[in-house]
Design brief:
Elements: E1 2-5, H1 7-16, E2 28-33, E3 36-44, E4 50-57, H2 66-79, E5 84-90, H3 94-103, E6 106-115, E7 118-126
Parallel strand pairs: 4-5
Antiparallel strand pairs: 1-2, 2-3, 3-4, 5-7, 6-7
């Protein structure tokens, strides 16, 4: 497996998450196997202290690795210098909601009827809560 970056990852994540367009960003980090993207994160709306993260996978269970997790959290917290990340997940996507909670994000609020599948759940993680970039990891 190897890392890939760029607009192609952003487009792939947008297609996998059924979102519209490209999140207004060219920044994407992906994980590929045999030349095919199997997971990716698109970063959008960076304003200094916060950036939105849109995460997608091909549905397989083999893509998740420590190297990829470190990379996708190192970028916003250490390279961009953010203090927090935000992830928005539609009510109809229970697998993604469980996944972001498993990564350590916390539900912050719910926007009623703000997503095509119902409510929009807003999750966050602060840098000091991120175990994926800690020295122990």
């Amino acid at each position: 497996m190897s890392l890939v970056v760029g607009k192609g990852v952003v487009s792939w994540v947008a297609a996998k998450t059924n979102e519209f367009g490209n999140f207004g960003t060219d920044v994407g980090i992906g994980w590929q196997k045999d030349g095919n993207i199997v997971a990716g994160v698109a970063y959008a709306n960076w304003n200094g202290p916060n950036v939105e993260c849109h995460i997608a996978s091909d549905g397989s269970k083999t893509w998740l690795s420590r190297k990829f997790l470190w990379t996708i959290f190192d970028y916003p917290f250490n390279q961009l210098g953010c203090n927090r990340i935000t992830a928005c997940v539609g009510e109809g996507n229970s697998q993604s909601r469980n996944f972001v909670v498993g990564l350590g994000l916390t539900l912050e609020t719910t926007l009623k009827a703000a997503h095509p599948s119902g409510d929009l759940y807003i999750y966050h993680m602060f840098k000091d809560q991120c175990r994926w970039i800690s020295p122990e990891f």
